[in-house]
Amino acid sequence: MLRHLGEISAEAARKFGDKTALIVGEDTYSFSDIDALACQLAGGLASLGVGAGDIVTLYSENRLEWLVTYYGVTKLGAVINPINVMLTPDEVRYVVQDCGAKAIVASRVKAEPLVGIEDGSQVRAVISFDTPPEGATGFDALLAANHPCPSIPDVDPESLSTICYTSGTTGRPKGAMQSHKAVIMNTAMTAQMHLKTADDVIVSALPCPHVYGNVVFNSVFFYGATLNMHTTFDPGVALQSIQAHKATLFEGVPTMYMYMLEHPDLAKTDLSSLRCLTVGGQTMPTPKMEAVEAAFGSPLIELWGMTEMAGLGSTHPVYGLNKMGSIGVALPYTELRIADVEDASKTMPRGEVGELMARGPLVMMGYYNDAERTKEALEPDGWLHTGDLAKMDSDGCVFVVDRKKDMIVTAGYNVYPAEIERVLAAHPAVAMSAVGSLPDDQKGEIAKAYIVLKDGAAGDPDEIISFCRETLAAYKVPRAVQFVEDLPKTSTGKIMRRELYTLDD
Predict the structure, then answer these.
(1) Whole-prediction pTM
(2) Does domain 408-503 have CATH number 3.30.300.30?
(3) What was the pLDDT predicted at 4?
């Protein structure tokens, strides 16, 4: 097995050479092509002073350059900080300053508002794909300079490889630190469970910065498969790609399958090449899973994971019992158990509900520069609090029944009420607010804001939503607003989010 991420693209080029690794639109790239570009980028970054241990932020939609940057950064022994493309510039500035990134690599539209960030941060350069904005370094020019590629350093597998920021319950993002070993083992064990080989052709629109997307593209380079990577998800285009490329796997979140189920092209699309479908990001209703299997003629394998585990923690094996409604069994080398919610040291009997906990080499090293929240998440003996309430049956299959905290999962993205409430509090008409969730057929859940207005103030739901959109990523913006006289509280004055539904119109 590989020791660290910096070895991945070179080893893939050695083993698979001119075989097609990536298809983006009409363009194809071999394993050798991508490794050569990653070497050029590594040389360019080194010329800017980026080296082993430095942190590089990657902020872009799915595209060839994203993968080239990922493998180029890791060739230097540097640490990759892949961030959600939906974050706003203000959110990105917080992340970059918090982790002390030395460089930012981004698409032009994302790079433009970040030019000048060097003042007040450790960033030395903003590197832009396409034609760079004034003040940024051009990605293409950096490659064209053809700086020599430094030798790949010897990196400890247990050392830091990736910092992935996830929203915090207090509204402040936290950076989950993943070791090289965690990312590599997660990719390998997921591929083991789903039987990925060089014969596979994978269609995916999963965002590369997401740990699910990360596992998908890394598995291609580990085992020589071909990835048809989509920049954004379009159900008709996805169906067409499966047929055109004779895909053997489609990997996505529940909403993608729901949109494809309703698409008029589904019935006339040849899906016979598929051997497996995977779904994660949030649980999917069993009737919808059954409908997908019937329409696609292929097994739909559910999986579960989290940023704090560098990807998956559980799934079903392709050759095994697939219990719909269950997130499957623990990945190899991983332990899962159901703990008493009041005492994490106690394990609940089979069939009883408690908090799902995980332990093993896939679990994060901790939260970057945040000892307090690391201590809250990780027990001294290594068990990770997942925040999910679940039960385990006699076969070791896990069924998630609820979330311990108030996290809202919308189309596979995690949204925390406190983060939205913090923005709402800045609105001049808002006296008090709380955010809960509403069920949604397509997205699973959407955020709803309950607002108590200041005396004499007038409220407009559309204006509130627009206000939030100015500072929050699109997926975090509440989709519904209700003005109320008061909010449910405990005897100590704490707002009870779980009781917000009692206020619904």
Answers:
(1) 0.85
(2) yes
(3) 97
